[in-house]
Amino acid sequence: MNQSFQDHEIIIIDNNSSDGTVTIANNYCSKNKNIRLISNQTNMGYGNAVTVSEKESCGEFVAILNADVFLDSKWTSNMLSTFKSDENIMSASGRIFFPNGVLQSSGGLMDKYGAVIQRESKVFYSSNTKKDSTFFYNDGSSFMVRKQIFQQIQFDSKLFLYYEDVDLSWKIRMLGYKIEFVPDAISYHAFGHSYPGMTLSKFYYINRNRLYVCQKNYSLKNIICRVPVMLFLIFGNALFYDFSKKPKGYTKIFFKAVFWNLANLGLILYENKKLRSSNKLSDKELDSYLLEKSIEISLVKNKKDNNNET
Is 111 within 8 Å of 196 (Cβ atoms)? Predict the structure, then answer.
């Protein structure tokens, strides 16, 4: 509502919350005819809820925002200027800050084993990743997408939570289109407000979807070479969390995530065949967007080196 560009509508979608969100949203709707509320009877998951609201939208572009995101007044106008500069740009995100002004993200990075990290974040610097690394995906907390491409590929309904943004950007790149980073489009995100810290549920969805997204989007060669390493890394994470956190159960959750992927192998093969049939991105071109070294191994190595120094 604070945007310098005022020709917009706002659609709030509630995933069957019980915290008073609907009452607050209805209050906004009663004061502004450009604000609409969609109330789901069940929690459909992040991606499915966004898809429902996109179908109700009227504009050429759709801004997808988390509930805990605040936009700079020129965010929309800066985004639209970027889209209008090149018709092949299908999705874009900007710089995302924490509410205290610390930079949270300048684009999402992914390594060859499906682990993700936000460029210029605290964890980014802890991994010794090069500052000029090419970003791979638009962070899902605040980005804009052309409605025509979103209608074509949409969020994967199977994901429910996490990796929707990675998957969407990956599919856009596979079709030969561009995704963009707009440094002047600034937003503020209370990161982790909905799901703070690492929990058993969060670990399950992150790693289940990490395996799923990589298997359905990668070429057969990359699946064979990289998924076994991915399994090893995720299992290592599970052991670490079981050793260092309470409650225990991360190793059990690891196997649950693997079994989900095995149970959905038919779907994965179908999605892979469909996506690869329209793919215009070679393995070499894809790798130019990905980090060569494992983020997880880099973090462990850097922590070990820092301990040795002290």
Answer: no
In this prediction, residue 255 carries a pLDDT of: 98
Q: How many domains, the chain?
A: 2
The verdict on residue 142 lying in a domain is yes
Would you say the pTM of this structure is higher than 0.70? Answer: yes
d(CA 224, CA 173): 22
- In this structure, is residue 292 part of a structural domain? no
Nearby residues of 183 by Cβ (< 8 Å), 6 or more positions away: 94, 95, 106
Looking up tokens 């060859």 gives 112
- Give the model confidence (pLDDT) of 156-213 as tens digits: 999 999 999 999 999 999 999 999 999 999 999 987 555 557 899 999 999 999 999 9
- pLDDT value of residue 22: 86
Q: How far apart are CA 255 and CA 180, in angstroms?
A: 36
Average pLDDT of span 235-254: 94
Task: Read off the amino acid at residue 255.
Answer: F
- Give yes or no: residues 93 and 205 share one domain: no
> CA torsion sign, 93 to 135 to 253 to 202?
negative
Lowest mean pLDDT among 115-119, 215-219, 249-253: 115-119
**Which domain does 204 fall in, by range?**
200-279
Give the pLDDT of residue 134. 84
Alpha helices in the chain (DSSP H): 21-31, 46-56, 75-85, 122-126, 147-153, 164-174, 200-217, 220-244, 250-263, 265-277, 283-287, 295-309
CB 62 within 8 A of CB 150: yes
Residue identified by tokens 């979608």 is: 13
Number of neighbouring beta carbons within 10 Å of residue 86:
11
